[in-house]
């Protein structure tokens, strides 16, 4: 087992070692990815929140690096170097670095990443179970558990035929807890890039990406607002497609259905029944949506089979984690009783991440992260 790295915030090595030992006993091999990481994957995949908070530097050759702002991408990169194309389970514990106004810029995270397992609902339930068992080591015996399903949310939007740009805006609104008013189709102000959007409608996406990259390269710019040239090109292409389809937002009928979905909550078994009722009422016929509902119910069964109190967990249709790479089951665990407070453990499924990082074969993956200072400090 690797020696836990020291961190800020008063978390002692004994507490870190205790948590890491628990994760290793579950079959997750302890690893320590480098602190310095290439910045590009985080800019492309980690979501708006982390993009704004990364510490960036350069190596001697001018390549942009960052202090790791989280562990999932570094562990996935390590997996590609060690066991690409195969299944493996990893655990970790060490410092991460993010600019923050109200918390330390360096703090300790621990967690697990299970890569390559194809028994999706069982793997999801195992990760949630290990997270709750880890919390119990520090006195959190009855925490508040909130679960969601990004795969179900995306499948619903696809089943409704929501255009790509509107789908992305809807998911971002859900992740930020914002109203959908600004996304619903209405009279829209003229886009300042209307001429460019008209010009690239129907064009080869590769050519559009190359054009944007060339313009930024001529200007000596590698990223704008934390977005890479490729991501900027993708956004222009999505806006052009939305313009060609008559609007960039939700239509009124879809807005009603999404609001109903967002309002589904409570006991996951009861939520499953409500979700099937919603899909039937809306007359949405979509194979991926049907499969997502089946997976949701199967996961509930595996969670209950582990002896976890499923009836005390709460599903929220409007729950969406703010990292771009989540594709399925997501969860957050907070202190139980009264005001929940900050997240103690969060995680979920990210089946597309390894492919984004260059894996030649798709590899399903799921994991979770403990905010160690919160977990151990709140228990003292």
Throw out a few tags for this protein:
single chain; about 375 residues; alpha+beta; BirA Bifunctional Protein, domain 2; 9-stranded mixed β-sheet; 15 helices; disordered N terminus
Any overview of this molecule?
It is a single chain. It is built from 15 helices and 14 strands. By secondary structure, it is of the alpha+beta class. It folds into three domains: 189 residues, Bira Bifunctional Protein, Domain 2 (BirA Bifunctional Protein, domain 2, 2-Layer Sandwich); 103 residues, no CATH class; 51 residues, no CATH class. β12 and β13 form a beta hairpin. It is globular, with a radius of gyration of 21 Å. 40% of the residues are buried.
What's the short story on this structure?
The protein has helices spanning 13-25, 40-45, 47-51, 72-83, 120-136, 150-159, 164-176, 194-200, 205-218, 229-244, 252-263, 268-282, 287-305, 353-356, 372-378, and strands at residues 29-30, 36-38, 56-58, 64-67, 88-97, 106-115, 144-149, 223-224, 227-228, 265-266, 314-316, 329-334, 343-349, 365-371. 45% of the residues lie in helices and 18% in strands.
